[in-house]
Write a structure and sequence with these properties.
Organism: Gordonia namibiensis NBRC 108229
Keywords: Oxidoreductase
Family: Belongs to the nitroreductase family.
Shape: globular
Distance between the termini: 36 Å
Radius of gyration: 18 Å
Number of helices: 8
GO molecular function, one term: oxidoreductase activity
Low-confidence stretches: none
Largest sheet: 4 strands, antiparallel
Bound molecules: flavin mononucleotide
Protein name: Putative nitroreductase
């Protein structure tokens, strides 16, 4: 696959076949992802790659606690809890695309709740990768930035091998559950989760291509003349 095919073809995958993912393939993908740049080459990231029983326990624990209304315990700053303006518009935009694809009506609270629960179950993916960073680097904005770089590289590397993934915060809403069942030590901060597996081609949301603002909107060119 060429670079453009990977970048333009990749999209978040939220429906997977039950087929297992070989450990060697995940190792290959992680090795590719870790070519990502990082501040001063600190490589602050670590990965807890979970499947089988422990992952099922995490799914159950997340679901149970979220349904019980336990407030989220993410280990990173989330900023304003509610988006406004263009950010809210984009959030609603992709949600509409996903709900339309899934046939979930705006007023169908049951189906909407089902969709949210799916996220807490890591979209029933066969594998979940928890991205953590070394706590000693806590406080530097470079560290989460570096985790973002490696996570993006990971989902692109996965795509290049035919695997699908979705980076998500839903899987780590209840960090103590993840910490316990994945055996994550205290010197690691939980940053993000990535659901990983073989895309289910029949799952409607998998075909959603989300929108992007234009280069014109995003970029300011300085010193280029007209
Ligand atoms: C930091 C981050 C957190 C995300 N959290 C979630 C999530 O909790 N649930 C979800 O369904 N998608 C989540 N996503 C996926 C985004 O919704 C998705 O990347 C975005 O809409 C663009 O779509 P695309 O990945 O298909 O290009 C997250 C992505 C990132 C980068």
């Amino acid at each position: 696959m060429q670079f453009d095919d990977v970048i333009l073809g990749r999209r978040s995958i939220r429906g997977f076949t039950p087929e297992p993912v070989p450990r060697e393939l995940i190792e290959e993908i992680l090795a590719l992802a870790m070519r990502a740049p990082s501040s001063m080459n600190t490589q602050p990231w670590n990965f807890f790659v979970i499947t089988g029983e422990p992952l099922d326990r995490i799914r159950a624990g997340n679901t149970e606690r979220n349904l019980a209304g336990v407030p989220h315990s993410r280990e990173f700053r989330t900023g304003a809890e509610k988006f406004t303006g263009v950010h809210r518009d984009r959030q609603v935009g992709v949600a509409k695309q996903l709900f339309t694809a899934m046939g979930i009506a705006r007023e169908d609270m049951e189906m909407r709740q089902d969709w949210v629960l799916r996220g807490f179950r890591q979209f029933d993916a066969p594998v979940c990768v928890i991205v953590t960073y070394d706590r000693i680097l806590d406080g530097s904005d470079d560290t989460p930035f570096d985790c973002g770089a490696v996570s993006t590289a990971l989902v692109n590397a996965a795509w290049s091998r035919g695997l699908g993934a979705v980076i998500n915060s839903q899987g780590i809403m209840q960090s103590p559950v993840v910490r316990e069942h994945a055996g994550i030590p205290d010197d690691q901060v939980i940053m993000k989760s990535i659901a990983l597996g073989w895309p289910d081609e029949t799952f409607p949301a998998n075909s959603v291509v989300s929108e992007r603002k234009t280069v014109e909107e995003a970029a300011t060119f300085v010193g280029f003349g007209d």
